[in-house]
Amino acid sequence: MKFLFYWNGTIADDAARACYATNAALDALGAPRIDPLEFDRKFILPMDEMFLRLGVSGDDLATAASHWNKAMASRDAPIRGGAATFLRTLHDAGEYCAVISAAGEQYLRDELAYFGLTDCFDEVLTGATDKVTALEGLRQEGQALYFGDTEYDIASAVASGCIAVGVLSGYCPEDRLRSAGAQHIITDYEGMDGVTARTLFGGYVTP
């Protein structure tokens, strides 16, 4: 079984940072700011779709994304409870792990280095705007667990044949994750290892 993770929200506990980054991008383009409650209601992936909904023109989407990435990189955010131990346990057991993000490569690699997680992942996939294709490429054949925290994550997991595990992160409430097809819901990774994850989410599968 493969273990696939989205980074923002799923491992990094960064909803507040993402709200800040969204407003930084809107400020740079002279668009109206949003408050945290509005961010909770309007956050959606892909990012281009969210910025379009917030009034950014199609011609300015690349600029908005650039400002968003810079703002995200300018602030630290913690990682979700138990995530570092879970990832280290998977790595030490020889499990295949990959991390996906729509963010830029340098930003994500800096984040992984900051938390000491660089060596925990067999593959780091950035700029992933088409998650279905990305997950299909990572999963290939056999079972894979995909941990994600938005409707887009969950729908992509289902479409790509992965077992969808929804993570309550502040980006998306439980009812929306379940409506998108989440087969399991967690709040953190405390006490989890590879065997536990297989038993809870995928049925036991020999590594």
From TrEMBL:
GO molecular function terms here? Answer: phosphoglycolate phosphatase activity
Gene Ontology process terms (BP): DNA repair
Domain of life per record: Bacteria
Q: Name one GO cellular component term.
A: cytosol
Residue ranges spanning the membrane: these are none
Q: Which PANTHER family match?
A: PHOSPHOGLYCOLATE PHOSPHATASE
Task: Provide the protein name.
Answer: Haloacid dehalogenase
Organism annotation:
Pseudarthrobacter sulfonivorans
